[in-house]
Amino acid sequence: MPSPSTSTPLPLAQPSTALPIHTYHCVCSTLLLTTPYRLSSLQQRASPSLDHARILPLLPLPSSTNQVPQLEEDQDQELVKEKEAEQAKVLPSLLSPNLKAIRKPIAVQREDGWEKRRIWRCVRCGLGVGYEILGEGDAAVEKVKGLWKVLFLLEGGLAETGKWKG
Length: 166
Hints:
By secondary structure, this protein is mainly β. It is built from two helices and ten strands; from the N terminus they run E-E-E-H-E-E-E-E-E-H-E-E. The chain has helices at residues 77-89, 139-145, and strands spanning 22-26, 31-35, 54-58, 94-95, 99-101, 106-110, 113-122, 128-134, 149-153, 158-160. The protein is globular and about 50 Å long.
């Protein structure tokens, strides 16, 4: 009979700061999003947007997380440092495979012109819970959009997991 191991277990790495994790489901109860952000704390699209969608910045893929967007030669190093600092502030969010973008974009007429959107839907029930802007969008989010992909989450499409307890 083998003797039990007498080696001491390795200590587990402890994160320096614990981030709260919030999970969000579609109204059909399908898990769609895991994020350290509360949706209510995210910025909303300003007027002339009528949907007041929440702006969720998504980090680039891990292979490109250390890359800063290419700048023109006449732009100064201060701008580069500012963009790097902004990238460090974004926390990772995880989109579930149950959240899919439709292939064909739609055009939406706004007070200030047209906007091309790709709708993100729940795979199970087909409810549109958000969208991304293709091409030019709000000037307020262009700064963020230049660094990361941005997903606009619609009100009423997602419910926090804790809200399902009843």
